[in-house]
């Protein structure tokens, strides 16, 4: 059995990165979302879950929480990116549903409410948003109602988005949360701390904010916040009130600087900035570049050790298990999840259309029903190498590169650039073909998306296998040439 568990005591765990760009600040005219999921010891598989009808009185409960939640009459169909670990992953999975609503999250360092509290909800929140939301705004409202009713046992930031709106929903242990909309002309980046600062408590129409009923009273009663002027809460700062100095973690600060420097093109913004007015328009390629970026000290390390890995404190990290850029379309079926795994610097971003009817072969180990039932009770046998699963080809390639990243990167990055250029050029042609075919046969139109997605996924899998072999041969030849030169 292959084990790849990180020593989280010796090396403090640092997690995901998320970028949201408002629709007026993108080249597409729709919201863009970029996300790196970072979870040591995880493997990833994909699922398609169909729309389902549920009986009156039906409830749902997840193994990591105590909440018994009333089921709704009908749940949405959705794509599910599942992260499986031997300990069970409550806070990693990504979703995008048939209405074009996406959900990803970032772990946030401890709030003033102590971590480790069990009960209420954890994993349930993301999944129920995907199952029930018809828009990003409705997703926020669903999350708010669930947290207020059932409670939550972690500190986390959710990105809940559709083509028109991007929302950040930040929740702490208990029943308190704040949600803020990323402005249409803004761009947002978050590593792993709370970023919502001043809350507009007068926004009763929820144009830009939602917040829990007890948010203020909880802070006041615990002595975490005292307004400068009695009755005036305009100086309330959610992030500092509920987290304060707990967020002083070097990895967060360095990743924040790295991302914002690329976004602004100049200097990084102050730490824990929620969003800024976009200095220009951003496209899919811009977000890919940021999500692939390595930490600033890499070039200095290479001067002393040419084999040094770049995956220390960058955005593309040693713990990255999936990267995605969600390119929303005007119709949900054409929304394209540009997906790379495990790390985006060693794999091409592949087009996974929301409208597909079947998953590419080898990217799902077993069905969604079995996966949900075993999500918190994973069989260790799943972590044995299996050549029939695409995951292992990419896993092998990334590990081979880590032995001598600089030696491998020219070939790997050159191949990726060519593959992505071809897929980028093909996308508008595929989109147009889908639109024309859908006018007469929606079924065949979706089959087109299914076949194209599968073809690209298969091509990338074969490339990963072949490239791993070629890199081993190349490195062996280089070593033999070196030793022969010493004869």
In short:
The chain is 34% helix and 18% strand.
Question: What would the keywords be for this entry?
Answer:
alpha+beta; 487 residues; 2 domains; disordered N terminus; Penicillin V Acylase, Chain A; seven-stranded antiparallel sheet; 19 strands; eight-stranded antiparallel sheet; 11 helices
What does the secondary structure layout of this molecule look like, with pairings?
Layout: E1 17-21, E2 32-38, E3 43-49, E4 52-53, E5 59-60, E6 69-70, E7 74-75, E8 78-84, E9 94-97, E10 102-107, H1 123-132, H2 136-150, E11 156-161, E12 166-171, E13 177-182, E14 186-190, E15 209-211, H3 215-221, H4 238-242, H5 250-264, E16 275-277, H6 284-291, H7 298-304, E17 320-327, E18 336-340, E19 350-353, H8 368-374, H9 390-403, H10 405-438, H11 442-484
Antiparallel strand pairs: 1-2, 1-14, 2-17, 3-8, 4-7, 5-6, 8-9, 9-10, 10-11, 11-12, 12-13, 13-15, 14-16, 17-18, 18-19
Helix pairs in contact: 1-2, 9-10, 9-11, 10-11
What does this structure look like?
By secondary structure, the chain is of the alpha+beta class. The chain folds into 2 domains: 17-380, Penicillin V Acylase, Chain A; 405-484. Helices cover 34% and strands 18% of the residues. The strands form 4 sheets. An 8-stranded antiparallel β-sheet has the order 3-8-9-10-11-12-13-15, covered by helices on one side. It has a 7-stranded antiparallel β-sheet with strand order 16-14-1-2-17-18-19. Strand 17 (320-327) and strand 18 (336-340) form a beta hairpin. Helix 1 (123-132) crosses helix 2 and helix 9 (390-403) packs antiparallel against helix 10 (405-438). The two termini are 40 Å apart.
